[in-house]
Structure formats: structure tokens, C-alpha cells
Amino acid sequence: MSVELDVFVGNTTIMDEEVYQLWLDGYTVNDAVKVRMEGGVMDECEASKDVLLSDTMDQYRTFQMCERLLHSPAKLANQLLFQIPPHRQIMLIERYYAFDDTFVREVLGKKLSKGTKKDLDDISTKTSVTLKSCRRQFDNFKRVFKVVEELKGPLVENIRQHFLLSDKLARDYAAIVFFANNRFETGKRKLQYLSFQDFAFCAGQLISNWTVGAVDNMVEDMDVDLDKEFLQELKELKILITDKDLLDQHKSLVCTALRGKTKVFIEMEGSFKNLSRGLINIAAKLTNTKDVRDFFIDLVEKFIEPCRSDRWSAADMKLYLTHYTNSAHILDTFKHQVVWDRYMGVVKSCIFKMYHD
Amino acid sequence: MPGKLKAKIVAGRHLPVMDRASDLTDAFVEVKFGNTTFKTDVCPKSLNPQWNSEWFKFEVDDEDLQDEPLQITVLDHDTYSANDAIGKVYIDIDPLLYSEAASVISGWFPIYDTIHGIRGEINVIVKVELFNDLNRFRQSSCGVKFFCTTCIPQCYRATLVHGFVEELVVNEDPEYQWIDRIRTPRASNEARQRLISLMSGELQRKIGLKVLEMGGNAVVGYLQCFDLEGESGLVVRAIGTACTLDKLSSGSAPNTNTHMHPNTAPASNACNSPSKDGKESPLAHGCRSTHNSPVHSVCSSQRLSQNFSVSVPTLIFTGMGSGGSAGKEAGPLRTLLRQQTQTALEQREFPFFTLTSFPPGFLLHVGGVVSARSVKLLDRIHNPDEPETRDAWWEEIRQEIKSHARALGCHAVVGYSESTSICEEVCILSASGTAAILNPRYMREGCLDIGCTDHRFEEPSPPNCGFCHIPYDELNMPFPAQLTYCYHCRRQKVPDVLFTTIDLPSEAAVAGKGCLIQARLCRLKKKAQGEANATAISNLLPFMEYELHTQLMNKLKLRSMNALFGLHIQISVGENMLLGLASATGVYLTALPAPGGIQIAGKTPGDLSSEHISSIQKRINDTIAVNKELYQINPPELAEEGVGSPIPEPRHRSRLFRSHSESSDELSELDLSHGKKDAFVLEIDDTDAVEDIHSLLIDAPPPTGFYSCNTENMPGISNWTSGVQMFTSVRVLRLSNANLTNQGLNKIFTDLCENLLKSFYFKLRSMIPCCLCHLNFTVAVPEEELIQVTVTAVAMTYDKEQTQEKTAEKPVNKGSLEAEEQLQFPLELCADSSSSNIQTASKISVSLFTPAAKLCQNQLLIARSAGVGESTNMSPRAASVDYGSFADRCSTWLELLRLKAHTIRRGSVKTISSLERCSPLQEGRSRSLRSSRSFGGSSVTVVKMTPLSFLPGTRIIKYLGIINMFFIRETTSLREEGGVSGFLHSFIAEVFAMVRAHVAALGGNAVVSYSMKECVFMENPNKNQAQCLINVSGDAVICISETDQESSASTANTGQTGGSETDGAT
């Protein structure tokens, strides 16, 4: 005796958020049943394991049928097959597009290609996110990437409108798309300490300040590609380290401002030239795609690590960078104030964000 | 040329990719009606094409308009090869044919393909211009409204109920035509869908014609079914109740001149015998005093005697052929009156009503359930134009039902329904209903012409118990029953249990809550062919009926209840087994005596270990106690037994005999009483019996916060909140081992049903406190070793806090309300007898009525007839009630009561006028027609669905027409679609979606009285194939929320009374 067929269909589609999460997390039906049993849902309604199994199967089927619609969330609102209350639709979409920070950290900056997809089982073992869930997340990234690639207008807004995501999630996706498009290196050991949210913040900074969209908001890919002209102009900043006078002047201005305000003043004074060279060199090299990819690793190697080895506190670092940036304005011979601000504004906030253990 | 149909194709969206190369589609649309086809332009390379076509106009007969659906086919244009069909939309334009319903159909329809399911959507606008040629109207039946709802629709008033209408049409099933061998499955499915659509249209038109002939304008309780007879054809049949409905408009005051005497609450007649006031015609008699003649007093005294059921209307038993000379004490006039009433109804060929709930006062007495079954061998329908055989079969069954009703002293059958179960060439036809006496006062003038009473001086017998009073005569009961005086009015006799197929009358007084009670049964049978098979089945049927009733009765007692409503017994036939499933809603009627307990007894005292017995006994007693608590059954304590009941309760011992066991005399030695009440005895004489008792006890009560019923209204709960979740669930079980016993099978089947319920409770736990209403189980044996159970129901949330207090005041108030609204509820009785040729090949019919009596004796009245004519009455024992001293006591009490009656009569006037006064309170509830298309901001209209006739918290302001849809889905890639469950899951979801889309296109926002009448599932996993047929129906409506309505109702507050259900939400 066996149950050959077992379905339950409600006029209003019944979805249990807990089961949805289990499904999203890639649990098999049986595993999901186990988890639910442990969760104590059985006591709620005198349910038995069979009841739970049947319910889980039903829900899994429903989700599978919905999945097609979730791929283009706008369809969910005007499809006729499932009657789902609007707040439920929002929940479904938001959760479907939600991702694990540990997973996204692994693929961040990688090309969203078939090749990467093949590596997902390794990532799955590493992050202990189920392969199924990895695939969903990866496909989501890819899907969002594909759609916004061809759209004009602001990236975050496009993602939000096309995928009906919350502002927060749309921003995260923008970061993922941005990273994938520019192929920023994030996987090196030295960068391991950085979380996805750190990068997402940086990406936000880069998008709103360094992209084409920062100056012109009606171009294709405006928020995805860095502003080439700007990158070109960055070369001009080299004068701050190549011109000996300027360098010294800059140093003394910064040191004057810092004196007495920090415990690590000596170290700051001592490493000023090195640090300044590091930051300016990063700026100057950004015309090379290769160096763009290494932007974050460079920041860490050239700035964050030296500071950390000198035991700067985060406050010290903030203080230093603020004065470092502002002092440049006082330099009479330094003409590239606008580019400087555009560059340092982003670098500063990125470093602020990245300066932690 | 009576009609012009116009259609416009606006746009498509979400179309499937038809061209792999470009990932796009070149779509165009064919619009077909009858034999005319139009095409749109091709909209190249788009998945969201905008056609914005011209208006395609079809000039057609209204007959075609009724029969044919508008067929819209979406295709992909292909320059080099044949165009590929994407899918189709069938639009039933019937709702556009009557003025009050929808005026335009406009909206997004899912494009449906029988192989691929829904493939995108199409936006269509359809209009009909009907030329108002009334004569032409009569030839078709445009304008006749159809309602699936089995009560008078909310915004209508029945001015006349004409009675039963039925029709059937037959055709060859395209699936079985020779051409099916060469055409694609898609073509075959579409041919079938189209044919059924045509046949339903034709059927509806024919029924409409009958209604027009009767002078009605609507069919209520319309029930249409398909019989897929396989090789022998396809039958589409329908039954319904013809009515003349008046739309209640907010501007009219329905209770002014159309009403009869204002001081006569219709409910007040509930206790009266139909004969005495029978000829009162509400419309005509302005002056009643003329009837105030000596006749009146004679009548009333006789009525009083009727109260004791001493007088016997002669006609009651003529139908039974058991000698109709019982009316020894009845005055000649009385008898005559009774006869008049009777004949009036009898003039109708079938005094049947498919309605299950009635305006108060319409239903006088309920006799009990009458049902009839007949086993037939199918043969090919040779001439589709003359479906005589099928007609005759049903005719026969209906005759049987009619005669059963008569045997119960009833002249009408309410809550009537018909069904079939087919397996190969064997077909079981079933019909059932509730025998009842209707209030003849509502009959049309002229049907009766002598004797009348003045209603003003009538005693108002409590409306909440009248229907329980036995309609049959006590001294000549059609079956032995244990009668007591009504626990409510103490004047008339009531049975100890009451089974009915109708809904609980809103005015009935109940204690506690109701609950779903099911009896489940499996019977193995040998595989056989032809007549041998039919004989085997018909031999099994009576035993199944008996067992099912035994189970029902036991479970009813176990829940400490005394009445069943909405009883529906389904017997389904398979190749090697029969399945029986009886569902009903149990309730404690305070008018009926408290049920006795269940007593366990060994075959002989001290036979089985008494410990064992006592432990079972304890379990049973405990269960009863628990159930009493659970369903809050605390009947009002009767102040003093002696006052009310003039006769000491006869202590009858009732015993439940197993079908094979003989009566044993030792029983009388046992103390059978359970408390003070009479007990039910279960004999444990073998292991089977033990099993049975165990199975009795497995039925788990619903978890806390849940109630369940299979009727429209949940007894004891009326304060619904707005949460509504309709669902359909299908489960198929494969029985793996071949050598199962009946017991084993029973267990499996019971578990299947119980587990389904458990699943529902679990799934819907977020709605607690909630009630599963209208739980409708359907069983089938699609293949050998497969059991399929399909359930459709609705879960509704309610307000826990108010439950208790509501019940007390509610019924009375409601009663008066509805009375105001629907007082005018005459029954039209006119002769409509058509001759019927009964030709039977191999027919054995089993019939049964379950009135208010005890099963243990011979409630099971089995009439078996093999061939024509010959019939054997199997009822074994005679009544054991001693009526000897009865009559004496009666006469003394008669006097006493007569005095009493006078007092009450005087009091009645007051009561009624107070009711009058309270009605204006409700008149504020008028409605305003709001824009029918503004429902929320979502791009897709939310369409609620419910199998009930109402939606809590809302009021239906418009019925847009009937939804009757038939779909076939087939797949040749079963695994890829997620196996059988995945396949059926998406199909059911698609069906819901299509129903919702059609309703939304009509401008509606809800479907009421929704039902899935057919869900036939076939699979062939080896070939990776499956096919499923689904038929659904319901009424598309616009409803507005109660709160909206109230806020906007301030302007027009004329005599618009609120519907009964909506009150519950306030």
C-alpha cells in the first residue's frame, strides 16, 4: 500500500515560510521533514510524520512551479496561475533573491560563467551551503547581471524595478553585478578577512562616484563601467609623489595637523611617504584593467597592512586619511583638486570600511 | 437574426517561445463561433503581442448563442510549415444573455493547451447585442438564469417555486470514435472539450425551455453531471429547481403589498399540519374573516389531535401499498384537505427540490432520508437524439424516491441529488433526498379550495422545532421508531434521531457545535462480467448501506448528537471492490431527545472476558464525555420531565444487530441503560465486532481550534471573520497486496480519509480558530487496486469570542428577517406528467430510507426487485412500541392542550408584532452598486472561491452567471512534469486560474457554490503518460464587503433586508 498521488491546492496558494526557506536552502524533502520535526511543528496540530511529509511535498511542488515566475518577478504580479497576496509575493521574491554572504563571498568578482558554475560543488563543500542553493544563488546573480547589462539608467534602480527587490537587496545585487563586471579580485588570502558587506559598501562607493553614471545618468552600462576619463585623469595625481616639494609640503601639512592628536604619530610620520606613494600609485595604474581588478588587494597591501603593522587604531586611520585628503587642497601647486576629491573620497570610505580585523 | 456577438482581441502576454531560433513567437489569433472564423494579423516576433484587432462580428441565432462557446485559438505563424497552435480559450457567453448579469466579458484569459497546460494569456473583449424579440426568446431560453446555489440566491426573492426540472443529452464520446486512432491526443481532447461544452450549452438551453414552460425565470440548485460511459457514450444530465425569482432592488420594498398578513410570521406554521392552512393564498386573500367559519374550529381541534399524531391522513401509505386505511380518527374534512394538498403536489411528476435550505416556514416537517440505487448494464447509445434508455432509468429511480417519500408520509423531497458510478459496463445510479412536508400555504391559489383558517389566530408554534416533528403517523409508522414528545414544544412527536440531506434550517435550535461524521466502508467483490457482475454488485449494496448506516448511527451516538444534516452517501464501484462513503454533519437538536450511550455486550453474558468488555465500555464512555465537552453539547436541562411529556418515556431497548447476528434474548437481562437514556447495544460476538468498535474509536477529533462540517452552515458558529481558503485535495492510494480482507481494506480506507483530514488541519493551522465547511469527499476506484479520494472544502476563520452568545438570539431574529424577505414563497403545483416506458435489462435496485428511527430494528427497508415488478420486503421485525395505553392518555391531554393552545394563540399576536417592529432595524442594509471593477490595486483581480453560497463578511450584490467548465489535460512526459502529483497539482492550479480569470472577465470577484464535480485521473506510468478530466461549476458573483456597504447605505434605506449569512459577520 502506498500513496500514489497526493496533492493539495488552495485557491489562495498556501506557502509556509519555514518550508520555503528549507527549499531555498536546498534541503531535500526528507531532510526538510526532519528539520521541521525537530522544530516542533508536529506538536502544533497533532500532526504525524506522514502529514508533514505530504505537506512538505506539496509545498516543494508549489515552489518549483513558482520558480519559473520568480525568475522574472514582475510576472508574479500579473500571472494568473497562483493567487498569492501581494505581501506574500514580496516575501517570495525577496527570499528567493536573498543569498548567503559566505557563498557570495566566494564568487564575488568572478566571471559569472559556466566555468564558475562548475566550481560550485567545491564552493558548496567549502561554505557548507547546499549545492542546490549555490546554483540558485549563482543563477540569480547571472540572471540579474544579464538583465541589467543591457539597460540604461541607474543600476540599483534598474535592479529594484526589474526584480522588485528591496532597496537593500537591490544594492547588494548592484555590488555583485559591479564586481562581476569589473572582475575585482576578492579571493586572495589577504582579502579573506573582508566580508561581503565590506565589499558591497565599497562597490556602492565606486558605483556612485567612479562610474560613468556618476556624471551622466543616461548611458548604457553607466553604473557598471568605471569612468574611463576619470581613470585617465587619475594619472595626474602622480605629481603628489613625483614632485619632491609637493610631497614634502604635503607631509608637513599632514604632520602639523596630526601632531599631538594620536599615539602613533611617530609611525605616521615615518610611513607618510610610503603610504602616499602607495595610494597615488594605485590611482595612477587604474587605467589598466588588470590593476583595476587588483584595486582591493592593492589597498590592503599598500595601505591597510602597513598601518596595521604599526598598530594604528581605526580612529587613527580616519584621522590620518582625513588630514591627508584635506591637506592636499592647501597645496598651491596642486591643481587637480576635483579628481583628488573624487578619488580620495572613495578610497577613504573604502579604507574606513576595510580597516578592521 | 436575434443576436450579434462581437469579439475583439486586444493583446497577449507571457506567450511561450515557439521559435527556438529567435526565442520569440509570431502569434496570431483565430476567433471562431459556430462555423464562422475570423483571424487577426500576425504580430511578429513578440512574446507580448498587441493585436488590437477590429471587432469581429458574428450574427447568430440565440439558440446557438446558448449552445456554442466562443472559441479563441492562438497560433504561431510559420511561413513554411503548418502553423503551430499555442493554445485555446473557450468563453461561455451565456452570462451575456440575460440582462441582469454581465454586460461585457473583458479580461485576461489563460491560453490553455490540453498537452502543455497554460501557455500565456490573452486579453479579449466580448459583447452581445440581443435583439429584443420576445417571441424568439421563447424558442431558445435566453434569459433564464441558472444558479448552482442550493438556496434562494442572496439578492433575489422567490415569488414562486415551480419545482423539479431535469434533462439529459447523450452523445458518442469522441475518445472512443474510430477517428481517435488516427488523430493526435490534442485533437481528441479538444474534440471532447468542445463536445461537452456544446452539450452543456444544449442541456442548459433545454432546461431553460422547460422552466419557461412552467412559467419560471430561473433554475436554482442547478446540478449538472457527466457520465463518461466509455464505449457506450457520453451522458450529460442536469437537475434543478425551477423558480420565479424577483431581484431585490434597493428601491423597492418587498414586504409591503406582496406580503400576506403582516401579523403572520410564516414560521408560526411550522408545527401545523399542512392541510389546515393549505389553501391560504397570501396574495389573494385580503379579507380573511370570510373564512372564519365553524370550519375553522373543527380544523383547529383536529390540528390538535394531529399534534398527538393520532389522526392519520389516509394517503400516507398508499404509496407503500401497505393498506391506506389508517385514518380512523381523522375527520373527513381533514383527510380531504390532506388529500387536496397531496394531490396538488402529486400533480407534479416529481415533487423534488434540489434546494437544501429554505425560507423559514417553508419546510414543515422532515421525514428522513430517502434514497434509491439501481445497478445497470450500459449498452451503446444507439441514437443520441433519443436518450430514452437513460431517461427511463432515472425516471424509475425518481419514482422510487417518490414512493419512499410517500411512505414516510411526505409529499415532497428536498435536498434532492443524483449521481452515478461507472466501472466498465456497470453503472450504479443513485438518488437521494429528504422526504418532507412543505407548507402548502405557499402553494399557488386554486390548488385547494376548501377549508381555511385564519392565521391571525394561529398559535405560533416554535419555529425551531417544527421541522423535527414527524410527518408520518405514529400508529402506522413506515418503520418502527421510538417517538417522544418534542423537547421543545412538548406537543408533537419527534423521533429520537433525524437524518436529512438538507442543511440545518437556520431557525433550528441546536446545542453546541456540529461536526463532520463519516462512515467509510470497503467491500471486496469478485471480478465478473456483465450481468453476473451487476448481480454481485446489487447483492452487496444493501449490506453496504446497512453497514454505513450502522457506522453513522454509532458515530453519532459517540458524539452525543442526535441528528445528521447534509447526509451524502456515495457508493463507488471498481473492478474488484465497492467503496462506500457517507458524510454528514452531526448536530444536537434540542427538540430531539438526548441520545443514549452505547452499551457493549458480549454475545452471552460472561462470554468474553468481562474485563475486556468493560475496558471497551469505559473507552466509549470516555469518548462520549470528551466529545460532549469538545462540541460543547450542554442541552438546556428540562425543568421537569413530568410537565412536558404526558407519557412516561417508553423505555425501549434498542439493539444494534450485526447484520449476521440473530437477536439474543439475554440482552433484556442486561442493564442497558446509559444514564437515564436508552442505550445502544453493540454486541461483541466475534473478532469482527471488536474491530468495528475499534474503528469507531479511531476517528480522531479535530485538533483544538478546528471544527468541520459538510453543510452550508456550521451549527453553532455564525460569527465568521473574513478569512476564506477554498481548497481541493486529491489522494490516490495503491493497494499493494492482492489478498486483502474486507477488514484490512476498511482500515486502509478509513486511514486514508482520516489522514486527509489531518493534513488539512495541519496545512490550515495558521487560520485557527477556523472551521472546515462543506467538506465534500468523493471516492472513486479508477483502476484495480487504486482508491482515489477527492476533497473540496473551504476553511473559514471565525471569531472565537462571540460564538456562545450569538447562538441564542440569532435564530429568531434571522427567521423574521428572512421571513420578511422571502415570505412569498409559493409552490407552484401543476400537472406535468409524462408517460414513461420502463424497460429494464438487468436491474436490481436497492432503496433505503433513513428516517428518524432506529437502525437496529428495521429502519433499513430494502426493496429489491429483480426484473420488473417483483419486490421483496426484507424488513424483518415489526414495531415493538406498545401504543395500547397511548390513546387513552392522549384524549385527556388533548383537552388540556386545547386550553393551553388558546392561551398561546392570544399571545401569538403580540409576539408577531414585536417581530415586526424589529425588522426596520435591518432595513438599513440596502446596498449601493459600486463600480464592479475596482477591487484592490493589484493588476490581477483577487477572486475568492467557496463551495458555500456566501462569503463571510460580504454581501452578494450581483449574480453574473453560472460557471461550468470542463477541461482535459494530458501529458506524455509525466516524469518531467513531476510525476502524477506534479501533473495533477499544476492541472488543478490551472483550473482554478481559468475559473478565476473567467469570473474576473465577467466583472466578478468571487465564485460561490463552487464545486468540482468530476476529477477523473488516469495514468500509465510505464508509458510516461497521464490524463485527467476536471469539471467544475459555480456562480460568478460580485460581492462587496459588509462594512463598505454599511457606510454607503445611508442614502437609500428602503426595505432591503440583509441576507442571512451576512448578518453573521457584523
TrEMBL record, chain A:
InterPro entries attached to this UniProt entry: FIBP
One of the Pfam families matching this protein, by short name: FIBP
Coiled-coil segments on the chain, per record: none
A Gene Ontology cellular-component term: nucleus
GO BP term, pick one: platelet aggregation
Source organism, top-level taxon: Eukaryota
GO molecular function (one): fibroblast growth factor binding
Name of the protein in its database record: Fibroblast growth factor (acidic) intracellular binding protein a
Organism: Maylandia zebra (zebra mbuna)
